[in-house]
């Protein structure tokens, strides 16, 4: 697994991250990173065992913690992955995955084609339309991941 990051509207607060993950069974982490200036950790999780997905256990989970305390966590069945260009903090094209939480989209970006990414950006958008516009969309928040902490499961991250 490779190290990376993600952001939440809660990212706009402040804290110190716990090294333990929040992607508990049946979820597996497929993107995570630390945001040191907030003492934060963001994680994107996914149920990899398709038979475990139910109405009570949707496919995706997002978690944002500061100083080891979860500030925002949600489960969703709504996610989108695509390729974007011109994302500040990412050299070249970027792979992205965004999770929808009641209309607000929490997204992570990494460089396309980079098996061991050393860049990751987490952004929050007010809508799926804004997320699909990337830098041209309305961005509610943006944080940059600390490179040594970026973890990405390249088999599941981005469009594929």
Structural features, described:
This protein is mainly β. It has one helix at residues 128-133; strands at 2-3, 27-35, 40-47, 60-66, 69-76, 79-84, 94-101, 104-111, 121-125, 141-144, 151-152. The chain has one domain.
Task: Set out the fold topology.
Elements: E1 2-3, E2 27-35, E3 40-47, E4 60-66, E5 69-76, E6 79-84, E7 94-101, E8 104-111, E9 121-125, H1 128-133, E10 141-144, E11 151-152
Antiparallel strand pairs: 1-11, 2-3, 2-11, 3-4, 4-5, 6-7, 7-8, 8-9, 9-10
How would you concisely characterize the structure shown here?
The protein is mostly beta strands and 160 residues long. It has one domain (2-152). It is 4% helix and 42% strand.
What structural keywords apply?
11 strands; mainly beta; 6-stranded antiparallel beta sheet; 5-stranded antiparallel beta sheet; 1 helix; 160 residues; globular
Dominant shape:
globular
Largest sheet: 6 strands, antiparallel
Which structural category do the helix and sheet elements fall into? Answer: mainly beta
Percent in helix = under 10%
The helix count comes to 1
Strand order of the largest sheet: 1-11-2-3-4-5
Number of strands: 11
Low-confidence stretches: 1-19
Helix/strand order: EEEEEEEEEHEE
The total number of structural domains is 1
Alpha-carbon distance between the two ends: 17 Å
The chain-level mean pLDDT equals: 85
% residues in beta strands: 35-45%
Radius of gyration: 14 Å
